[in-house]
Amino acid sequence: MQNTTTPPAWNELLERLSEVADLRGAGALAHWDQATLLPSGSASGRGRMLGTLSKLAHERFINPRVGEVLNLNEDFARQEQIQGNEFPSRLLATTRRDYDKATRVPSEFEARFASHCAQIYSKWEEARGESNFGKVAPLLEKTLDLSRELASFFPHKHIADPLIDSSDAGETVESVRAVFTPLREALVPLVREVIQKPLASDAVLRGHFPLQEQGAFATQVIQSIGYDFSRGRMDFSAHPFMTKFALDDVRITIRGDEREWGELFFSALHEAGHALYEQNIDPHFDGTPLAEGASSGVHESQSRLWENLVGRSPAFWDFYFPRAQSTFPALQNASQDEFLKAINRVKRSLIRTDADELTYNLHVLIRFDLELEMLEGKLAVRDLPDAWNARYQSDLGLDVPDDARGCLQDVHWFSGLIGGAFQGYTLGNILAAQLFETAQRELGDLNAQFARGEFAPLREWLTQHVYRFGATMLPHQVVVQATGRALELGPYLGYLKGKFGG
Ligand code: ZN
Questions:
Q1: pLDDT more than 70, % of the chain
Q2: Fewest CB atoms less than 10 Å from the CB: which of 218, 229, 284, 306?
């Protein structure tokens, strides 16, 4: 992307940004190693190493010289843009946005916040073990204060806006509510209707499924959707995740159980969806802030799209069920229909991470509403368990027996901030359906392609319309650019009603 007239300030900017990217990549590598291979007695040295790497990356990025170099490149970027090269101006815009965010927060606050995070995390583990919310409540109060303080460094309309913006740039309480309120109104009755039906059996998914065979099957499938193993790996970890050290090294981790079929496969497909996004970002963006997904919501749209809209569809299993049967003797007497019903069954759960595709969003909406009420001061921390339990009763019809299976179950509020921690999951589900519908309109019958084991057209469409752009656009711009419309509920509700209703 450089030519002979490239000014020295441009090279300096790229050099500084790639140093930051490499330090962050080294941190991600140390973290990946911690989650997959690190001996159990080595945590303390690793913690120190991770702290050092993240401090160095942060210091390098907020160096005032970065701000100067951004200014020095304005003219160059404008000229390049006139000549049709968008890269410099996009890079300046995205880097400036990140730089502005990073430099508004005083380092004194960062340090206070980091030490609070470490403290509340270990207290939360204890409190959850004893199912005793009271134990961690005073620290959660402090998290609320810190979250409000963080928000106060940024201009905002609602106190949660800057917190939401940090993971879903450009989104606000207002914009998220505009889709979440009608979603809840549609979902609660739909769930009520679906759970009247007899519960499908998932017995077909239980038996003996050696992890090695499950891993080999998942490998074959994620390769067929386009995950590139020459620039990635798949390993086991306690919590599945996708991580990236550079655009040519995007790894995923999975989790599984040899007594049941499902968790390993769908964790692989979910994380491979995240990885397809990263592996298909324009390689010229490597080493810059453009080499990222647009937001947590857009990222999640990709993991959900491949996991659910593709991987739980009948057409997908028209192709893969016979192959699964020949891999797993335990599936040989099952019918494809039984299998499909089992992997798509709707069963209300107290636990978000166990939830099915239909009820999952209700868990997210509950958390989103409650965190806003706490930030607004309308809900006192000590009343959180009662408010939580009341919502599980009204939205899911479930009685919460204890805090461990209630408001203590997720790590999010107890490891960082309140506000903005959960909305990306549901924004991703909604967007996945909208993207899929648009791709289907442009590519013809996707199901017929899946039934033949053809996934390249969909992946290439997503690369063309979403992946290759990385972080050059704000999430709402990605949506309009890819689908021609703003984010809307219609395709998602249509998908859910078509699949589960009636
Ligand atoms: Zn995900």
A1: 99
A2: 229
